[in-house]
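Notes from the 1:1 (GR / supervisor)

We went over the backlog. Supervisor wanted to see one worked example end to end before approving the batch request, so GR pasted a single chain during the call. The sequence is below; no edits were made to it. Supervisor asked that the structure be written out right there so they could see what the output format looks like.
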Amino acid sequence: MKAGDELPPLEIAVTRTLIVAGAIASRDYQDVHHDHELARAKGSPDIFMNILTTNGLVGRYLTDCFGPTAVLRKVAIRLGAPNHPGDTMVLRGRVEEVDGDTAVVRVTGDNGVGRHVTGTVTLLLAKEAGA
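Structure output shown during the call:
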């Protein structure tokens, strides 16, 4: 792995269950993450994913790419276009920097509306056996 390497994209189907389960798992009980009518009353076309679910999906994406021994040291993300039920989010990553066993990866996630998430993640990578 070296700076400039592109990670394989990951497509995630954004379902109502994923949005609600992510909100509950992160103890985010804001009505816009589980109640369609209240979300509409607040101006959203439907419920939408919270940042903690997105944060978890970004972590999953990177540990899928770098293996289960990779440790997320810092995750800094920013949300843009909301993820609604029925969207497909495509996560992509690009290695920005490698220093010893530490890598910095630039991550983006897009859906049908636009860019849902941007950010950088610093990972501690496991050394390969015999290295």
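Supervisor's comment: Strands lie at 6-13, 71-79, 88-99, 102-110, 115-124.
Batch request approved.
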